[in-house]
Amino acid sequence: MILHPTGNFDNSARDYKHITAVPLAAAMGAEIRDAQISDLSEEQFLEIEDALYRHKMIFFRDQDMSHDDQEAFTLRFGDFGVDAYTTGTEGHRNVQPVVKEADTRTAMIFGSGWHTDSPFMEAPPAISMLFGADIPPYGGDTIWCNSALAYNNLSDTMKKVIAPLKVHMTGAFVVGKLNELNNTGQSGGGYSEPKKFGDIALDVNSNAMVKGWYHPMVRTHPKSGEKSLYVDHTYSHGIEGMTNAEANGLLDFLKQHVCQAAFSCRLRWAPKTFAVWDNRICIHQAFNDHDGFRRELYRTTVMGEVPK
Ligand code: SIN
Prior knowledge:
With 308 residues, this protein is of the alpha+beta class.
C-alpha cells in the first residue's frame, strides 16, 4: 500500500501585480484570472510564465482566442515543438486537433494513459497547451500529477539509487496498440490506413517512436532548478544497463508512486477554457469516459531541450 504522503506541499499563489493566480489543488495547478491570452501585456506574460513554473499547470477560463492567438502565445515561450502525431489543422501546421466525435467508440483516445508528451524524442516538447472548443457536459476531464512533488516524497536512499539511471522512453506500446486497433477496425476510425487515433488522422514515424531515447530518470528543470521524476506509464519501458526483469520492478513502483491522487489536480473543461502545462515536471492523462458527447480541443507545443 502506498501511504498518503504528507509534508513538502506548497502550491500557494504568489502575489502578482498584473494577473491573479488561484491554486487548484494542494499538489499543483492554478487558475489564472484577469488575463486574456489574445491581449496580453509583457508584464502579464512574465507573471504567467512565473505562475506556470510554480504551479506546473495553469488554466484560463472564458478565453476569446483564435488559432492565431494560440500560436502567438505559444511562440512567446519559444519555437513550436515538433509534433510526433499529426500534421496540424488546415492552415495551422502547429495547431493539432484533439477530437472525439459523439458516436465514436474506441478503446484508446489521444492522451489516455499517464504520460509526458513525446519523451521518445531527443528533445521532447517543454510545454503543451490545449484550447477547449467543444466540451462534453460532463466527463472528458484532464488530470495531472506533479512529478517534482513525487520526487521530493521519495526516500533519500531511493533518490540515490535512481540518480544515475537513464530510462528508455519509447512509443512501442502506443504504436503496438494503434496497429492492433486500426488493423481490427476498433480504432474508432474503422480499418484505417493511414492510421487514426479515434477521429484524429495520424502522421507518425513508427520506427523513430519505437526506437525512442534514453533520458535521465531524475530531471532538473532548466528554469526553476527543481528535480523531478521523469517516469510515466505510457512511454517508460526499460532502464539503461538493466535487464527487463530488474527494470520492471523499479519502474512499476515509480509509476505507481508518481501518479498518486495526492500529487494530482483535475481540470473540468468548459468551452473557451485554455490550459498550459510543463511536460518537464508533470505527467497527465485524458479520460475516455464521454461516449455520446463530442470533445474538440486544439493543442500547441513549445520546443524543449534535451533533458538533463
Ligand atoms: C494530451 O495528452 O495532450 C491531450 C489531453 C486531453 O485531451 O485532455
